[in-house]
Amino acid sequence: MAPTRPVSQNLRVPVVVLFAACLAIAASIVAFAQPGKAFADYSISKVSISAQVETDGSLHVVEQRTFKFDEGTSSIQWSLGGFPSNTGIEINSVRMAPVGSDGQMAGYPQVLKSVPFVLQWRDSGGPGSDSYSYDRTWNNVHVFFGAEGGGRLIELDYTVENGVTAYADVGEVRWRFVGDSWAAASENVTMSLALPLPSQAAVDPGDNVRAWGHGPSGGTVEVNEDGSIVYAIPNVGEGEYAEAHVVFPSDWLVNLPSGDAQPHRTEMRLSSVLSEEGAWVDQASRSHMLSLALIAGCALLCAAALGVGLWAYFRYGREYEPRFKDDYWNDEPERGTHPAVIGRLWRWDRRSDDDFVATVMHLDAIGALDIRLGERPGADASNPDEDYLLTRVPDVGTSDPLDRQALELLFGKIAGGAGALWFGQIGEFGKKHPQELVDAMDSWQMLLSEKTKARSFFEKKGAQWKIRLFVLAGVVVLATVAAWTISGSTVPFVFALASGAGLLFLGARCERRTSEGNEICAKCKALRNWLCDLPESGATLPVQKRSIGVLSPYAFLFGAMDAALVALNDRLREEPVASGEGARAERSWALWCMSREDTSFGPRNPAAEVMRAAFDKALDDAHGALSAGKVASDAQGDEGSSMGERAR
Question: How far apart are CA 597 and CA 220, in angstroms?
């Protein structure tokens, strides 16, 4: 079985994170675009309403709602409204029954007792027992139950005096049977309105009985021959309402009270109702056309944006075709180019401490350093401390500024001018001299950035279009969210998901290497393949002991230091040692890149990983110490200022 190759460094931007950020922004906008919504500690799974129009113009209503309350909830506020201004409401009874997980009643309904209303109950509190109270000022019924949470079916029976407005020609019912004050969606809503049909009269839908519904789309209205009108709505969302508008012959109201109870008794109403409902239909038609136009506009916008993204990718993002097309390469990607510069090319110029470790490995490969595994002096004899030791070779120099600055950091600063350095000293130096370590590493990384920039490995146009496509993705998402909010349709947001993801995907791949940079990167990939596939017969290029030390920094940079390198060590042992230099290269390779299982101190990680961990921890400790010092300094400064103010 072939070893698994490390993941290539081609993923330049965390696309998922960026897209998630866009969606978070979009969700925030949608949330703020819906005013008046409050957090609900309950859900409403079913609403069943039966209403009877009485011959005296009153409306007898029985509402049943099935609730699921969160833990800690012990009351519900029921707002009654949506009736004519001259109405009066009388609560007949309130009943409550437990509901099981299947939504069915799990016991007999209990008739709740009525208690006088207390003003403080508008915000919280209650009598502490199963009961209800009517706030006549606000037309709110408060239902209290002792046991917190769980499912409840609550039935409210009440009468609305003058709930029907009588005119000379028609009686009119205009009632929001689901108000917009509920903090949760009302699901599975049905409302049956029974008219006072005289025995000799017949219902002629659309003629003597007309019914309309206002509210969410998807609802139905049915006028039956028995004088009942049934409204069915799958879902009335939070902040939405459902309204019934019904007219029927006013002479069906045979017991209307005299006096001022029905002030419109001599007025004609039907023509005005038809005009109003016609205006509703026209408005609904315009809204529907606007919704379709917005959806079509979003589709065109998303398609155009994706077209721009595809054009930018093919023009500035698609990688150049390299001349080198072999699967394997067993030499440096480009002779004369520093491994740290190759590391920046490999990871799209992103900074990493791995480049410094690779530089130290490179210095060992050219003979400027020597690495050994030994017992650090000063350790407890009963508990010896095994560590890696770097020794500077005085007779071997280097002209590369990156190498010289790395040597100065290791031996001039961390080792204090000594010619040898234990890896353990790196962390000790970071604790004692945090600012010096941070400044030295920043200076070295800046020098590496300058050398990488001088090679012009990356095209500027692609980077510019990468940003433009990200911005365009955000514009598309925001525009479609606005269309979603206005139209109420989720179709535009589906377009936003598709086009936004496509633009982010294309934008992340718009940045590309130059032709020269891609040529070198092709050899980097082939070298990585060769290192990983050495156990396989396909890696036919020979292993050269004299150059293996030079390749160790690239094995580290490309993530090829795994169990497959055992095969490389085996191949090296098969070749006769031509010189002392070849033997040193084999030893250095084994120390830098291979784990050791046969030490008296137990397993030992490769030196490259140990050095990387040492520098990572030292820099983390240094930054932490500097941050803590700044906080302490600021606190002392604030205290000094306060003391000075008191003294004045």
Answer: 76
